[in-house]
């Protein structure tokens, strides 16, 4: 028998186009959506911890693309991705 679960979304800055956290009942993980423009200035401990991240972009031909990575400090790794893009070493996701 299947049981329902609740997902709690929290709009950290009060809007859906900014930082959002999601928590599933009876699970100790957390999902965080953060726009790339807010990565560097984010001062949340949960963004600075270990985790898996998804970088999403749209290709030139209109198809969606996702890069999946993991890091001990997700924020530092995302900042590194942004620096590598700005220096031309990496594709922009």
Could you explain how this protein is built, in words?
There is one protein chain. The protein has helices at residues 45-48, 74-86; strands at 7-11, 20-24, 31-33, 51-58, 64-71. With 93 residues, it is an alpha+beta fold. The radius of gyration is 15 Å and the shape is globular. The model has no long low-confidence stretch (mean pLDDT 90).
Query: Helix share of residues?
Result: 10-25%
| Biggest sheet, spatial arrangement of strands | 1-2-3
Query: From the structure provided, what is the oligomeric state, counting identical versus distinct chains?
Result: single chain
Rg over C-alpha atoms, rounded to the nearest angstrom: 15 Å
List keywords for this structure.
93 residues; alpha+beta; three-stranded antiparallel sheet; two-stranded antiparallel ribbon; 5 strands; 18% helix
